Design the sequence.
């Protein structure tokens, strides 16, 4: 530390002070005293400004003034009648909302407006204890000890004997854990505000923020720093050696990990040594809808400051728990419960909840706080399909009446106002800040979990509380919400015309500022020339605004409002402006194939090559011509009469690749996949490598990539000579199943790039609301791993999966036909494997100790492996050889006599025969030798059996989506 030396002025003041006290000190004693002053400054460091609770300081410039705060705390008056369009100062000088310009971003629109009240609530936590590592000089003891040593000294000098003591520090540090789960996307931004608030109130000496979740691959807890995925810590590292740490677990408790009790052990371990508290974004009345309902809600007490939370006592035993345990003796019953359950203090972000908890934590024996008793050894419980209240048996009107009577008044008011708006999180914040400033995040939680709002991502409905289509890192502002038409109608009636118009006006200002327009100009355009607005960046928001506003004006009844409603509705019904591609088609529709035929020979060949690549896609010749951009130098090369398709210079392959990519990605919304496939000879040595280019769209479940498989034809089965060789070598007639070899034509389709993984299976299996015919086990597989293929699934299970996926996505999913599977596996090859003449354990997961040709023996892994870790085939598909057998649609036949030639599944004629038939399996597995992993090998099994740990499947989506 920098020493603060005494100045001459300070020395003069010190001498005057000594003389005034009548002390008779010589020069040496004065020097010793000044030296001691320097020493204490060195030990103490620079004087520290004491940290006090924020509410005890003066208001900062950004804080609300008292009059504004009192205004917010009072009930809102009824909204006055407002004109349809009005000029305000905002049109002259646009008002900024949040820290920057619109649209509102979640971090800028602060959740909390009651930070002072919350600060007062946790005042009991502002305590100091002796530090175990930091020391400071005890002034009184130093003076006394120095005086004792100085008395009797013959020379009369003053001795200085410093006496140290433990430095006083804040009693606790805080670790804020935010659960990394999809539904927390709504509340994660508030974690930063909570951390800032914890740092500012001055009650804690340090605040750290981490993410916590369950690692499916390692089957353990994963705790990472909030901003760095690579920096992780072990759960036991959060245990403070002296119990001076508070762990706040911030979660809505709706994830499967809470229902399955995966956090319970860590919560117990932490609670034995220090205080652990669950921080819920929901009000206490909504906890029953979460995984906390699997425990018992209790009131907790504590008489010792900072006592580990697992030692807090519950005041009374819940009646139902007493009945369950069938024990009348309260003492014995309490001991039994303590052996089975552990207490977890639980709080919400309200002043009353925080104050009760802070008093209990500080050892106030007269205080109680909320908590829940959780099982020490939890059982794996069924996960509900939704945490929204059950609506079955109730009309929408009854459900709304129930919500109005049980929810907070602010939540009910917010729900009504949202009925007059297209709903997303920025608009919710806008309505809060402009029209309902007293509302808070708990009111948002009540509204979102009310069951009246459906959640959408990219225009498709999702189940947000089950992870849905989005993940923890999904931007919250990308989510949209929608009311049922009947619900919106009822809420608008409850809201009233004047307040509905007020909402419309606030939204008009909001959208107008986004478009850099005045409110008057915006409303004028939306009524007279809406196409101008639909061509702008906020077109979707404008259309949604018009749709809702039309309903509001229709309810007003008057003729002028009915006219406005009709104009708004006509805007909603009008088609959007044509995309760029369609404009191109109109512009170049005169460029027909006849015109293209006038090109040079090389240009024509290049054009035909491109057209062949896009044969499955609906693209006009004129657009192909326009997209095929060539330089003058390239045109000169193509003018040569000697150029053929076979001798086309290599540089034009890049031209074809780029043009194909541009058309398919831009016009048909597919994504390009690039990789490399390999080919081997009979010894297993790689003889060639070729680039792979494929196009796909990504679907939910997570990482389900559906690859485009182009149309074509191929020879299905195996040549008679090869079958004879295999029959002789293995002394088995079953290879005759692969005959006769026959030509099959295949239409284009989409096939999942990998077998369905366990994570993808779980995503669909746990969706009870999608059930069609049968229940699905969420985790049927023997070999666990989220990216490993699911196995132990029957043919009927696989069909149910496809039906649920179809129901969820509104697309047609199914199992591949046997012909589609072999065509996709071969990817244009005619060799035994798509890799070539043989297979090695570096290319696939099978029993590598067995050989097919002259390759060396390889590895036998004895279990499934994560999908996609070996090279793909020419179509970009992974794991077509080995890993797991894959179900096909077809009923099994002993040979191909009479098989379809168009790629359709081959089924028995009657439903009864289909139900009795075995189903086709393809591809081999980790357990089988390479002969059974060949592209042409056929296997079969009983459709109901699901106990085999080497049977999985992949799915097909019909080509009608984009082709």
Sequence:
């Amino acid at each position: 530390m920098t020493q603060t030396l005494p100045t001459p002025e300070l020395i003069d003041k010190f001498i005057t002070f000594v003389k005034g006290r009548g002390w008779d000190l010589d020069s040496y004693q004065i020097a010793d005293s000044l030296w001691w002053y320097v020493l204490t400054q060195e030990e103490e460091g620079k004087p520290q400004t004491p940290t006090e609770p924020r509410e005890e300081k003066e208001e900062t410039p950004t804080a609300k003034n008292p009059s504004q705060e009192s205004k917010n705390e009072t009930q809102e008056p009824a909204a006055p009648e407002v004109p349809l369009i009005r000029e305000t100062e905002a049109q002259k000088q646009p008002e900024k909302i949040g820290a920057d310009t619109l649209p509102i971003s979640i971090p800028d629109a602060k959740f909390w407006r009651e930070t002072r009240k919350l600060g007062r609530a946790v005042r009991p936590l502002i305590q100091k204890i002796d530090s175990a590592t930091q020391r400071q000089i005890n002034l009184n003891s130093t003076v006394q000890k120095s005086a004792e040593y100085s008395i009797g000294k013959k020379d009369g000098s003053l001795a200085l004997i410093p006496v140290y003591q433990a430095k006083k520090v804040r009693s606790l540090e805080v670790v804020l854990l935010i659960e990394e789960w999809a539904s927390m996307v709504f509340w994660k931004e508030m974690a930063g505000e909570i951390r800032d608030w914890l740092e500012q109130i001055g009650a804690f000496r340090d605040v750290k923020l981490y993410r916590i979740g369950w690692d499916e691959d390692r089957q353990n807890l994963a705790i990472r720093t909030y901003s760095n995925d690579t920096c992780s810590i072990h759960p036991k590292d959060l245990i403070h050696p002296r119990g001076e740490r508070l762990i706040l677990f911030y979660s809505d408790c709706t994830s499967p990990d809470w229902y399955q009790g995966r956090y319970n052990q860590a919560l117990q371990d932490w609670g034995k040594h220090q205080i652990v508290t669950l921080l819920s974004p929901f009000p206490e009345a909504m906890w029953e809808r979460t995984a906390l309902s699997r425990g018992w809600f209790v009131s907790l007490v504590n008489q010792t400051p900072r006592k580990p939370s697992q030692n807090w006592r519950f005041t009374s035993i819940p009646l139902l728990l007493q009945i369950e345990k069938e024990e009348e003796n309260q003492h014995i019953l309490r001991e039994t419960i303590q052996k089975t359950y552990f207490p977890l203090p639980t709080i919400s972000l309200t002043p009353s909840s925080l104050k009760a908890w802070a008093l209990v934590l500080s050892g106030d024996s007269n205080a109680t706080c909320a908590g829940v008793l959780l099982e020490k050894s939890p059982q794996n419980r069924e996960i509900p399909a939704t945490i929204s209240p059950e609506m079955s048996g109730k009309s929408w009107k009854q459900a709304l009446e129930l919500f109005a009577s049980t929810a907070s008044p602010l939540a009910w008011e917010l729900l009504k106002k949202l009925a007059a708006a297209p709903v997303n999180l920025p608009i919710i914040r806008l309505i809060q800040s402009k029209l309902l400033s007293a509302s808070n995040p708990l009111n948002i939680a009540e509204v979102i979990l009310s069951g009246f709002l459906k959640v959408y991502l990219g225009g498709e409905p999702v189940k947000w509380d089950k992870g849905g289509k989005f993940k923890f890192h999904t931007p919250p502002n990308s989510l949209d919400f929608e009311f049922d038409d009947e619900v919106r109608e009822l809420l608008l009636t409850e809201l009233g015309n004047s307040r509905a118009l007020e909402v419309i006006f606030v939204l008009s200002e909001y959208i107008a500022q986004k478009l850099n327009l005045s409110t008057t100009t915006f409303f004028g355009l939306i009524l007279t020339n809406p196409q101008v607005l639909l061509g702008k960046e906020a077109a979707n928001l404008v259309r949604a605004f018009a749709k809702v506003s039309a309903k509001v004006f229709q309810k007003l009844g008057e003729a002028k409002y009915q006219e406005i409603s009709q104009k708004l509705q006509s805007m909603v019904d009008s088609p959007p402006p044509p995309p760029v591609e369609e404009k191109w088609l109109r512009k170049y529709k005169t460029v027909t194939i006849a015109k293209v035929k006038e090109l040079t020979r090389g240009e024509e060949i290049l054009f035909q090559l491109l057209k062949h690549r896009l044969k499955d896609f609906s693209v006009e010749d004129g657009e192909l011509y326009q997209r095929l951009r060539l330089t003058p130098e390239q045109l000169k090369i193509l003018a040569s009469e000697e150029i053929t398709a076979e001798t086309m210079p290599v540089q034009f392959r890049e031209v074809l690749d780029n043009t194909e990519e541009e058309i398919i990605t831009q016009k048909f919304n597919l994504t390009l996949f690039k990789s490399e496939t390999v080919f081997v000879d009979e010894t297993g040595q790689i003889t060639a490598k070729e680039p792979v280019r494929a196009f796909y769209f990504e679907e939910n479940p997570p990482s389900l990539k559906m690859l485009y498989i182009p149309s074509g034809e191929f020879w299905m089965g195996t040549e008679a000579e090869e079958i004879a060789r295999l029959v002789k070598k293995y002394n088995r007639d079953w290879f005759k199943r692969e005959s006769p070899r026959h030509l099959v034509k295949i239409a284009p389709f989409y096939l999942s790039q990998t077998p369905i993984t366990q994570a993808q299976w779980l995503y669909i299996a746990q969706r009870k609301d999608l059930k069609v015919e049968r229940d699905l086990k969420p985790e049927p597989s023997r070999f666990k791993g989220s990216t490993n293929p699911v196995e132990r699934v029957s043919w009927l299970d696989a069909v149910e999966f496809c039906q649920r996926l179809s129901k969820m996505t509104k697309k047609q999913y199914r199992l591949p036909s046997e012909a589609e599977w072999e065509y996709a596996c071969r990817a244009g090859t005619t060799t035994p494997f798509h890799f070539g003449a043989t297979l090695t354990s570096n290319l696939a997961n099978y029993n590598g100790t067995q050989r097919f040709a002259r390759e060396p023996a390889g590895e036998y892994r004895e279990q499934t492996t994560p999908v996609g870790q070996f090279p793909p085939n020419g179509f970009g598909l992974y794991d077509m050889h080995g890993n797991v057998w894959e179900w096909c649609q077809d009923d099994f036949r002993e040979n191909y006599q009479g098989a379809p030639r168009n790629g359709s599944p081959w089924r028995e004629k009657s439903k009864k025969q289909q139900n009795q038939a075995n189903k086709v399996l393809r591809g081999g597995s980790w357990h089988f030798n390479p002969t059974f992993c060949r592209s042409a090998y056929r296997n079969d099994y009983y459709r109901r059996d699901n106990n085999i740990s080497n049977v999985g499947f992949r799915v097909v989506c019909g080509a009608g989506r984009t082709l």
